[in-house]
């Protein structure tokens, strides 16, 4: 396998709590993943990115890390992680670990020590503790907003406030402190030494803050905590660590920075290798919009020599089958609401077409567990089972992200559909009763299933190494491009499109040799 494998890899995202439960407690675990490695090998993916598996109180699905050098007992042990990395390697699959540098859990020893220490102590300097405003310090230190809604400041008993851009259980680290930097460099080495092929860097655009913590003034530059220039130094030092290994490790950034030129700065040759392309993910099902995003993405990446990434969904966003079945097919966190009318048959047809579109684009591809099964967002979870802080901090108006985190269906006619062994506890989030037709077992032999489409698509994608170019004269509403000698056509217009050439793969039936609306095809 080439050292630059990340330039065109297909990377599968495992959300460990919901992938497969090996020990029957109703929660996915590393033993469950190990047992399913043959499934991932057959799917043809090059790497797995694991959402956090560290010891955590799970106040934010594991993005509240209490110990960066261990595995939560719910998932297994550090030895299990080492075995998993080694066994995945035997299947030709690399492992990417999720690194969470912006914040720790409020149970992390550093934060406990900071709470126990006095205002102004060295322990508190590792975080952002401040006095409040107002006559008695009763108002938060500034006007910032939490990414999860509400105020990002929490007041403690001695009157000081601490900053948390996410939930209160996730205090932000002070990245101006050398100890914070050193600690994270050691954490990187810890996982690289255990065979991790790379890291996915959580909330990578948020670490650096203006030390004065000034009020946020709309439109003012630089922003006090997003996309600050100091970040580049941090990632340069990480790149040097990644490059110091015999098989260089890979840095993948989670960067929600809308300006494509600013975004590409993180991908300069001595910084990160790749970063998630959220612009593409957020676009509606519209040919002009998607084409614009593809062009902007390729144009932004070219000058820094980095490969583009293509992502349709992940553990934070509405599943594609559901999103594309709505009147508004964009993704936006603040547009999420209960009770949005959805046509799942339409959504599935479009999600299948979107799969072929995405698989044909040049760069690396991310596939979120269950996407290959065409799972819809689960929108009727009982309210008392919801866990996501995004739901609670919105005052209950945002449904939150639990609906895309429901345990996978593997086999059999009823819940838990093989997610857990027989006689196990109920899964941590309930699966819909009507998922029998979506199991891996049900889809495996079926030529018309989403799973078959992804298996075939990933297999053929390996040969799509040629250059990318738009085809001239495509009708309005049709995306038409070539990769070497393969053409990809996606019909988002209202009229069927005549086809010529040998069909390699199609996202749906092609009656009378025509490409129907919301259908994609690969031709040679
Ligand atoms: C990232 C993660 C998300 C998490 C947040 C805070 O956006 O993808 O799941 O809630 O960071 O760590
Ligand atoms: Ca388990």
Task: Characterize the structure shown.
With 524 residues, this protein is of the alpha/beta class. It has 14 helices and 18 strands. The chain has helices at residues 30-35, 37-43, 78-90, 109-116, 178-193, 231-243, 260-265, 278-282, 287-301, 320-323, 344-360, 389-393, 440-444, 450-461, and strands at 10-14, 47-50, 94-99, 129-130, 153-155, 161-163, 198-201, 250-253, 274-275, 309-311, 364-368, 468-470, 478-483, 486-491, 497-498, 503-506, 514-515, 519-523. An eight-stranded parallel beta sheet has the order 9-8-7-3-2-1-11-10. Strand 7, helix 6 and strand 8 (250-253) form a beta-alpha-beta unit. The longest helix is centred in the C-terminal third of the chain and has 17 residues, at 344-360. It is globular. The two termini are 27 Å apart. The mean pLDDT is 97. Alpha-D-glucopyranose is lined by residues 60, 63, 100, 166, 202-203, 254, 315-316.
Low-confidence stretches: none
Bound chemical compounds: alpha-D-glucopyranose, calcium ion
**Main β-sheet, in a few words?**
8 strands, parallel
SS-based class: alpha/beta
Question: What is the rounded Rg?
Answer: 23 Å
Strand order of the largest sheet: 9-8-7-3-2-1-11-10
How much β-strand is present in the residues? 5-15%
Number of DSSP strand runs: 18
Q: What is the average per-residue confidence, as pLDDT, rounded to a whole number?
A: 97
Please give the count of helices.
Answer: 14
**How would the global form be characterised?**
globular
Rounded to the nearest angstrom, the distance between the terminal CA atoms is 27 Å
């Amino acid at each position: 396998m080439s050292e630059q494998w990340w330039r065109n890899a297909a990377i599968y995202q495992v959300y460990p709590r919901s992938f497969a439960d090996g020990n029957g407690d109703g929660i996915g675990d590393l033993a469950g993943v190990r047992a399913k490695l043959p499934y991932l090998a057959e799917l043809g993916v090059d790497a797995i990115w694991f959402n956090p598996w560290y010891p955590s109180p799970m106040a934010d699905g594991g993005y509240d890390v209490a110990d960066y050098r261990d595995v939560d007992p719910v998932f297994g042990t550090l030895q299990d992680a080492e075995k998993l990395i080694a066994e995945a390697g035997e299947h030709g699959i690399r492992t990417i670990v999720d690194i969470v540098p912006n914040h720790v859990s409020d149970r992390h020893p550093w934060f406990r020590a900071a709470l126990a220490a006095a205002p102004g102590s060295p322990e508190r300097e590792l975080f952002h503790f401040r006095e409040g405003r107002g006559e008695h310090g009763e108002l938060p230190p500034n006007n910032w907003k939490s990414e999860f809604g509400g105020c990002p400041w929490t007041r403690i008993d001695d009157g000081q406030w601490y900053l948390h851009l996410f939930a209160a259980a996730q205090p932000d680290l002070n990245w101006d402190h050398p100890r914070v930097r050193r600690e994270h460099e050691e954490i990187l080495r810890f996982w690289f030494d255990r065979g991790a092929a790379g890291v996915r860097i959580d909330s990578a655009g948020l670490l650096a803050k203006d030390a004065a913590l000034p009020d946020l003034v709309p439109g003012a530059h630089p922003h006090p905590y997003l996309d600050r220039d100091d970040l580049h130094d941090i990632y340069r030092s990480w790149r040097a660590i990644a490059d110091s290994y015999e098989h260089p490790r890979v840095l993948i950034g989670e960067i929600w920075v809308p300006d494509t030129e600013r975004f590409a700065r993180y991908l300069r040759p001595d910084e990160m290798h790749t970063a998630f392309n959220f612009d593409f993910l957020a676009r509606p099902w519209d040919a002009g919009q998607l084409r614009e995003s593809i062009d902007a993405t390729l144009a932004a990446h070219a000058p820094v020599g980095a490969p583009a990434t293509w992502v349709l969904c992940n553990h934070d966003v509405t599943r594609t089958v559901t999103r594309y079945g709505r009147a508004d097919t964009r993704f936006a966190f603040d547009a999420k609401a209960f009770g949005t009318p959805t046509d799942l048959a339409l959504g599935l047809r479009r999600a299948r077409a979107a799969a072929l579109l995405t698989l044909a684009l040049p760069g690396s591809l991310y596939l979120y567990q269950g996407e290959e099964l065409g799972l819809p967002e689960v929108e009727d979870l009982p309210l008392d089972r919801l866990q996501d802080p995004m739901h609670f901090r919105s005052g209950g108006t945002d449904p939150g992200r639990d609906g895309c985190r429901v345990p996978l269906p593997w086999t059999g006619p009823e819940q838990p559909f093989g997610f857990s062994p027989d006689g196990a506890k109920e899964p941590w989030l309930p699966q819909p009763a009507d998922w029998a037709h979506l199991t891996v077992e049900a889809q495996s032999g079926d030529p018309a299933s989403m799973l078959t489409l992804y298996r075939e698509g990933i297999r053929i994608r390996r040969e799509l190494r040629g250059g990318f170019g738009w085809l001239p004269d495509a009708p309005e509403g049709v995306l038409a491009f070539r990769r070497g000698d393969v053409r990809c056509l996606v019909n988002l217009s209202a009229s069927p499109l005549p086809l010529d050439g040998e069909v390699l793969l199609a996202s749906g039936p092609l009656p009378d040799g025509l490409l129907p609306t919301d259908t994609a095809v690969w031709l040679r």
